[in-house]
Amino acid sequence: MIDLHTHILPGVDDGAEDLAMAIEMAEAAVRGGITVVAATPHFFQLPDWGKIKALTAELQRELDRAEIGLKVVPGGELFMDIEILDMAHSQIPTYAANGRYCLVEFPMQQVPMYVEQVLFSLQTKGITPIIAHPERYLAVVNDPNLVLHWIELGCAVQMNSGSILGRFGQRIVETAKIMLEHNMVHVLASDGHGVHRRGMNLPKAYAVVEKLIGTDRALELVQGNPELIVRGEPISLEGAQRYQKRRRFWLF
User: Fold this and answer.
1) CB crowding 175-186: b at 16 or more within 10 Å, else e
2) In terms of DSSP bridges, do strands 187-189 and 36-39 run parallel, antiparallel, or are they unpaired?
3) E strand or H helix at 6, and its extent?
4) 40 CB-near residues (< 8 Å, 6+ apart)
5) Under a CB-based contact definition with an 8 Å cutoff, are residues 80 and 102 in contact?
6) Which residues, given as ranges, of the chain have pLDDT below 50?
7) b/e map of 4-32 (b: 16 or more CB within 10 Å)?
8) Which end of the chain is less crowded, N or C, counting CB atoms within 10 A of the terminal residue's CB?
9) 242 in helix, strand or coil?
10) Would you give the DSSP letter of residue 224?
């Protein structure tokens, strides 16, 4: 498995506090069958793409020294902001520094009016936005078809493992199920911040998702698509379906 959303870089954001915790997270990932993780720190907390790449290489050396068989590739979680419009391509944190895919997080409570403008700006730079955990956004909980709209605009979608496991409440679980059942998800990732709370629980979530949508599609979310993203190759955004809210029939 490949985990494309982790906060494993030590001491840079609200993820791994130090190297010891980063190593624990790496060991937990390997035990679960994960071979590659992306270090995706919050970019607003470490707004230096060059430093993120350097720290990722440093962490990889430490993991190699400890003989932990995990590959770490650089990335970043870019918070949705109008200032992204002015960022040069070379400043934007892309997966494995391939210049092709970037993880973008929206505010939880509302979708900014300039979202489509920013997404289009990234695309004109040759970057496919991957929207981080939209199942947690209030606007999506109220209308899951917002995700379909973003996919139709050319964006990919990353779901958090904790969402389908119930960490964020039942409404998030239901939204996650709707998205999975309507082919609105391209990547499943842990968003791991530590060892216990918000841990590296991608394998556990995979088991739940596999029962929900089948082995082939589940593997696409943790192996097929993530591998293509790391290599900077195109993934398919086809097949997403509109969600039709079930009508309630009242008996009198």
Assistant:
1) bbbbbbebbbbb
2) unpaired
3) strand 2-6
4) 4, 5, 6, 7, 75, 76, 77, 93, 103
5) no
6) 249, 251-252
7) bbbbbbbebbebbeebebbbbbbbbbbeb
8) C
9) coil
10) I
The answer to whether 187 and 157 are in contact (CB under 8 A) is: yes
Distance CA 19, CA 11 (A): 8
Cα-Cα end-to-end distance for the chain: 52
**101-105/187-189 β-pairing:** unpaired
Written as six digits, the tokens of 229 are 């993203």
Which tokens is 28 given? 């937990």
Residue extents of the structural domains in the chain: 2-231
| Inter-residue contact 56 to 88 (CB < 8 Å) | no
Token reading at 150: 């973003």
Which two three-digit tokens encode residue 42?
């919050």
Does domain 2-231 fall under CATH 3.40.1260.10? My reply is no
**118 φ/ψ angles, rounded to the nearest 5 degrees:** -70, -45
- Could you identify the residue written with the tokens 């679960």? 32
158-203 pLDDT tens trace: 999 999 999 999 999 999 999 999 999 999 999 999 998 789 999 9
Distance of alpha carbon 226 from alpha carbon 96, whole angstroms: 11
